[in-house]
Amino acid sequence: MLKSFFKQKENQSDILIEEINSLTPKEKESMIDGLLDLVALLKSSNEKNAKGDSVFIERITEVKNTVEEGRTSLITSSGNIQRILDEAQNIHSITASVEAQGEQNIRLVNEGNENMNKLDSQMD
């Protein structure tokens, strides 16, 4: 009886009213009990879905926070790596300068030795 109503696409409230009026009091009570059960089931399902959605949103928020922390950590690490690279370049420049100065000092010492040898040979 009511199944045919729900299968139809058009609004047929008059037919529904006639069908409900033609029911016996026991059938009406049974129909109302069924509708109340359906409402309770829908309410329960809605509460479960709301709890599930809440847990899902909470987990998404946790993942988002974790990803944000990871992103911040990567940015910090990237900055630290750049500073290390800059310091390494600075150390390399200082080392090259010290090496060049050392080579110049060795040349000066060699030149000084040669001059001392010349002076010593002139003094003999």
Mean pLDDT: 89
Element order: H for helix, E for strand: HHH
Characterize the biggest β-sheet.
Answer: none
Strand content: under 5%
Kindly report how far apart the N and C termini lie.
139 Å
Radius of gyration: 46 Å
Structural class: mainly alpha
Number of helices: 3
Low-confidence stretches: none
State the helical fraction.
over 70%
Characteristics of this structure?
3 helices; 0% strand; 124 residues; mainly alpha
Layout of secondary structure:
Layout: H1 2-7, H2 13-21, H3 25-123
Overview of this protein structure:
The chain is built from three helices and no strands. Helix content is 92%, strand content 0%. With 124 residues, it is mostly helical. The radius of gyration is 46 Å and the shape is rod-shaped.
Quick summary:
By secondary structure, this protein is an all-alpha fold.
